[in-house]
Amino acid sequence: MSALLYLIPIALLMGGGALVAFFWSVKSGQYEDLDGAAQRVLLDDDLEDESKIN
Which of 34, 36, 50, 53 has the smallest CB count inside 10 Å? Predict the structure, then answer.
């Protein structure tokens, strides 16, 4: 029973920290352009950069 006295506040602090991190990521624009990031994975930009170097 005494372990719950430690575990419950720790769980609440961790949950609060995750909530703060989520709100910070939303505020900083991490979720603005999800489709653009998915499309950039498919582009072959590396081939163009290598041809400029050579």
Answer: 53
